[in-house]
Amino acid sequence: MFLKTYSMFFKGLNIFEIDRVFFDDFSHHSQSEQKKVNYRTKQVLKWVYSKYEDNPELFTDLSKPLRSELNKKFNFRSLDLVDYQFSKISNSIKFAFKTLDNEIVESVLMKHPGRYTLCVSSQVGCNVGCIFCASGMFGLKRNLETHEIVEQLFQIQKFIFEREGKRISNIVFMGMGEPLVNYRNVLKSIEIFTSDWGFNISKRNITLSTSGILPRIYDLVVDGVRVKLALSLHSPFQHEREKLIPIAKKYTIDQILKAVEYYYLNTKRRITIEYILIKDVNDSVNHAKELVNLFKNYNMKVWVNLIPYNSIGNIYFEDKLLEEPKIERIREFENIIKDYFEVSVRWSLGRDIDGACGQLRRRIISN
């Protein structure tokens, strides 16, 4: 792959790896030996992850020979910002980046009172196959490397800090791709997001969304990943979910919810249930009641996040054009659930900026 044709990518390495490469010292550094990390390494990390500067020539507290050495040993950029759109109807910005092998990935910055949340991508495209999602329309090209995931946060953090002096406090892995298919790279990016030498974001402020990759949900517990977990469910009926999300044929709803329950019991992190509401497909009273009955069978705290469908074009499901339900139906669905579980309606923050996952990439590729 193209990643091996250049020096090492700085943003894909942890503090110990950077220290080894920078000082050509492979003789120590178990992760318990942080005291042995050279203080120059910590200076460089402060420039990148606290000051949002990744041009070594501007690391003014390092000598010129050290700056030159950094340039020789590390590549500090792996994404090129090619487009961004400010929403006129909400506080959100959609970003499109080009990778070194000329692929397009997306990120969305969402501004909320008191916090800024960034939605990052974990893959180029997707192979889950959700019929309502633009991310998978061109198939899966490849996993994103750790440095490409981290680069999304770095560039957008730098972008917004220079304009508004604000810091991003929340991360959601809800962009392009299935994060648990790109498991190791996603976990390492979370390490960089949450470490005190990295972006220092609380694990409680990071949400990992999955369509239900069963073994990896259990692995999250084994690996001590204590972020929030979101499950893309979209139907309480197995036969229907398989049609909406083809990968759902591999694991049943019961199997997935048992795994999610296990995650909750071991982390005490509330589980988010993502549910896209599609007119006359999965928005009936029967669907809402069945969701309630379903969650009653599991010992976990859930929050149901209802998402009115955001059109990606003339897409059909069993001869029905996919559309957003009427507001009355959305509220009726919400009211049925709220008597039993926490629930909210998440209106799209970027309907005027190709806000749905994969839309901006699709437009750029099509053009």
Brief account:
With 367 residues, the chain is of the alpha/beta class. It contains 11 helices and 16 strands. Strands 3-4-5-6-9-10-11-12-13-16 form a 10-stranded mixed sheet. Strands 1-2 form a two-stranded parallel ribbon. The protein has a two-stranded antiparallel sheet with strand order 7-8.
For the structure shown, list the relevant keywords.
elongated, 11 helices, 367 residues, TIM Barrel, disordered C terminus, 10-stranded mixed sheet, single chain, 34% helix, alpha/beta, two-stranded parallel sheet, disordered N terminus, 16 strands, DNA polymerase, domain 1
Provide structural commentary.
The chain is of the alpha/beta class and 367 residues long. It has two domains: 2-75, Orthogonal Bundle (DNA polymerase, domain 1), CATH 1.10.150; 79-366, Aldolase class I (TIM Barrel, Alpha-Beta Barrel). The protein is 34% helix and 21% strand. A ten-stranded mixed β-sheet has the order 3-4-5-6-9-10-11-12-13-16. Strand 3 and strand 4 form a beta hairpin.
Structurally, the number of domains stands at 2
- Give the strand tally: 16
Query: Would you tell me the structural class of the helices and strands?
Result: alpha/beta
Average per-residue pLDDT, rounded, comes to 90
Helical content stands at 25-40%
| Unreliable residue runs | 1-6, 361-366
Sequence of strands across the biggest β-sheet: 3-4-5-6-9-10-11-12-13-16
N-to-C span: 26 Å
- CATH architecture descriptor name of the largest domain: Alpha-Beta Barrel
Main sheet characteristics? 10 strands, mixed
What does the oligomeric state look like here? single chain
Instruction: Kindly identify the CATH topology of the largest domain.
Output: TIM Barrel
Secondary-structure element series: EHHHEEEEEEEHEHEHEHHEHEEEHEH
**The CATH C-level class name of the largest domain:** Alpha Beta
Radius of gyration: 21 Å
- Residue share in β-strands: 15-25%
Molecular shape: elongated
CATH level-four homologous superfamily name of the largest domain: Aldolase class I
Tally of separate helices? 11
